[in-house]
Amino acid sequence: MSELDLSTEIKQLRATLETIIAVSNLPKLEAEITELEQKAQDPKLWDNPENAQQVTSSLSRKQSLRDRLQEFKSRLDDLEVLVELANSEADSASVTEAKRELDLLQAELSEAEVQTLLNGEYDSRAAIVTIRSGAGGDDATDFAEMLMRMYLRFCEKQGWPTTVLDTSYAEGAGIKSATFEIDEPYAYGQFSVEAGTHRLVRMSPFNAAGKRQTSFAAVEVVPLIEQTDVIDIPENEIRVDVFRSSGPGGQSVNTTDSAVRITHLPTGTVVSCQNEKSQLQNKAAAMRVLQSRLLEIRRSEEDAKKKQLAGEATASWGDQMRSYVLAPYQMVKDLRTNFEVNNPDAVFDGDIKGFIAAGIRWRKTEQK
Fold this sequence. Notes:
Methane Monooxygenase Hydroxylase, Chain G, domain 1
């Protein structure tokens, strides 16, 4: 059996780990953990449940990051020992195990490296995602629903909790628009690279002649507001309308006017919510979405380098950021990063981690 040499690969992984540790600022991380541990031990902490939840969640995330970095270092040390063992004893089982561990470490460190790039002002926030159908008729509304399912499937696979806040069904197939919340730390940092115009090319199931059809949908992503954010919305700047919630085809799902639509008059921003049972709950949820969108607008105005506002995508020709091609060939390609896969079915079933990672790296390069 020839000698197993993984020295180059292990050296590269150690360099990657050192970069991650440097960016994570381990001494600062340890100091923050100590401070949060002291707060968590305060008997009065749970007098304010929301603040307590923030403290304990933050402590858990930071401890997990520290422990994971330490685990990576230990696994790299163990891998070197395993390679030496495989070579000294000519053990094929140890060779197989070493190669498997190398593959795992490469994948996990690559994912951790991407996470370190999520250091924007609001990257650590939960996210509110809105999908709107664009040009393309029934194909576009169907495509919008396909995108919504894709994102919800991705979140389901990651174990991220989601809440659908509002869905506007089309008269034919699919949806005109939908808004949902992803209640997961760093959801905004990851999903923000999905914002823009998405394009679908396929043989239309809605065309009797079976011709190829191009359709579009726009994705907007904004960070969820937190209690520390100050977004004051005077009552005279909003208009509140109530209506009955409904499902596909107009079927009533609520016999009272519990759904709420709020219009922010100065900016023309409109949000609605019909997921909750009561009008008060829907109004509170809609206000949370409105505040999140206004926060994003304010952030964008303050950041002169930002290239577009959330919702700027027009969902039409010329400005698409990703193409989903089902005919005459099978491919999904991001036009910014050139990342592509040849399995659209897997993508639409939520396999978009590669696109998100490539998008985060691309965004960091664009910011330099």
